[in-house]
Amino acid sequence: MRRFPKLEQWLSGEAAPTLKQLEAFARATYTPIGFFFLAAPPEEQPPIPDFRAPDNPFRQRPSANLLDTIYLCQQRQEWYREFALVTAEPERSFVGSARLDDKVVDVAARIRETLHFSVAERRQLSSWTEALRLFIEQADAAGILVMINGVVGNNAHRKLNPAEFRGFALADPVAPLIFINGADTKAGQMFTLAHELAHIWLGETALSDADITGETTYRVEQWCNAVAAELLAPLDALRQSLRRLEFERVPLREAVDRLARDFKVSRLVILRRLYDAGAMSDLQFHAEYEQELRRLSELTQRSGGHFYATTTARAGKRFTRAVLTAVWEGRASFTEACRLLGIKQHTTLERLSRELEIIPNGLPA
Fold first, then answer.
1. Over the range 152-164, which residues count as b (16 or more CB within 10 Å of their CB) and which as e?
2. Which residues lie closer than 8 Å to 357 by C-beta, 6 or more apart?
3. Which of 50, 94, 110, 173 has its CA 20 to 30 A from that of 302?
4. How far is the C-alpha of 166 from the C-alpha of 157, rounded, in Å?
5. pLDDT band (50, 70, 90) for residue 107
6. Under a CB-based contact definition with an 8 Å cutoff, are residues 229 and 273 in contact?
7. Full-model pTM
8. Is residue 306 helix, strand or coil?
9. DSSP-derived 3-state class of residue 44
């Protein structure tokens, strides 16, 4: 590393860093300084049940970025739980209302009803971004904390890797929380949100990589994938659309594109649903799926956007509004609010409050 030109000498034992250099190295690598004094590096594991595929190369040694993201969300959930109890928010009866033995179609219908999630309404939207935004708003309105971020907190230098994880759910009857890896595609985030909703309905906390192929060895992940697919692209509705395309003699690849745009889901989800509907052979499904994965790996993710909108999405609208409300009602300090929202300056907190109309524009704070 250019910042630490003597790193190789430190590792070989030819030289030793000063305490100041060690502290700087710990900050740069997001490592607790105490770890450097241990005989062997500790084997940190995610603090929540890990249902990622056993062959996920990141599973054995989770990154500091993943661990810090989980810890941050746990802190936020704990804060919101106390806020909800003080403000007498009701428990969310849907948390833990499903069982693995429940029919996938029935559970998907119950989620759809709770969220007022309409396939027909989503079809009228012009883009995946709009569809995802509506989906998040519906989950938020139902009482679920939804946080989407492609970095750790607000640190643009600590990017999250979708190959390591796509999301996780922290089940709680008062403060259910879903985190989605914002570095994934918009269509991919749609599926992850649906997948994690299934975990919330089961009442189970879980770390996921949301593999739509269904080849996971975990029964719970197979079930959550199936519920997510049925929620986003109900098989009956898909078959109706497919019959129309077959009547028009639309080629398979064009049909997949049109169905993906129609249902506002990824091509991967459509390929899986076509396979479920018996419209594709096992060999054809895996060939098309692998080709789509290669195409997605070549896409670049764009970042940026409106600062306040980005901040709200990263912490979640419900959580952000709760924190800001607590500040202006005197139940939380500016310092605590800045820590929870990842904001450095009190003036930024005030501007965000005005953006969300927690305090009116023109009114002195």
1. bbbeeebebebeb
2. none
3. 50
4. 19
5. very high
6. yes
7. 0.85
8. coil
9. coil
